[in-house]
Every structure is written in structure tokens, then in C-alpha cells.
Amino acid sequence: MSDVGERARQYALVGGAIIGLIIGLIIGLISGLIMGLRIGLIGGLVGGLVYGGTFLIQHYLRLYLLNQHNLLPFNLIPFLNQATELIFLQRIGGSYRFIHRSVQEYFADQWEANEHMKETTNEQESTV
Predict the structure, then answer these.
(1) Contact, 27 vs 40, CB < 8 A?
(2) Which end of the chain is more exposed for a tag (fewer CB within 10 A), N or C?
(3) Based on the domain organization, do 80 and 28 belong to the same domain?
(4) Over the stretch 116-128, which tens digit does the pLDDT of each residue have?
(5) Distance between CA atoms of residues 24 and 105, nearest Å
């Protein structure tokens, strides 16, 4: 299973367990043990689907938007693996990092410069 799928599954299990316990306890105190267990189980399943599903939807929506703006390919893993084969990136577990620190610093500086330019533009627009 991919890292995204694994994380979504973890979020679903934790979110579902928490939601199920809370709902089950509340309903159990109000309507009795059996009803609390039933409603808690249903609430936990729904909560887990919502919590884990939301994570997956957010991930793929971000990937889609980055692809639409020509910032990243939609099939990101083959792209990252090719960059690793070309010794541009290094894979560490389920994540990647630049081999050369200077490349990482260059992109970080570009990001900061872009953010500063946005702030300056917003300040100029608000004074007009």
C-alpha cells in the first residue's frame, strides 16, 4: 500500500475509534449499553470513512491542482524515482530529499522570494 493509503488508513482507524467511543459513551449513558454500542459502532465507521476519506481527497486534489498549473506531474512517484536514478534526489524511507544541500537552499530561497513578492504586492494593492 502506498504511503498515502497507509496514512489515510491510520487516520480512518484513529478518527473512527475516537468518534465511535465518544458517540457510544454519550448514547450509552442516555439510552443504555446496547444502543450505545450500536450507535457508537455506526458512528465510528462513518467517522473513520469521513476522516480517512477526507485525507485522500485532499491529497489527490492538491496533486491535481499542482498538475493543472504545470508544477508537478500527476504520476508523482515515477517522476521522483527517475530523479533518484539521476542522482538528483535521495530516497529515505517513504520520503525524498535533494542530494546537494545547495539545491535545497536554492529552492527555499526562491520560495521565500516569491512569498515576499506576494506580500509586497498585497500591501501595494491595499494602499490603492
Answers:
(1) yes
(2) C
(3) no
(4) 776 776 666 666 5
(5) 50
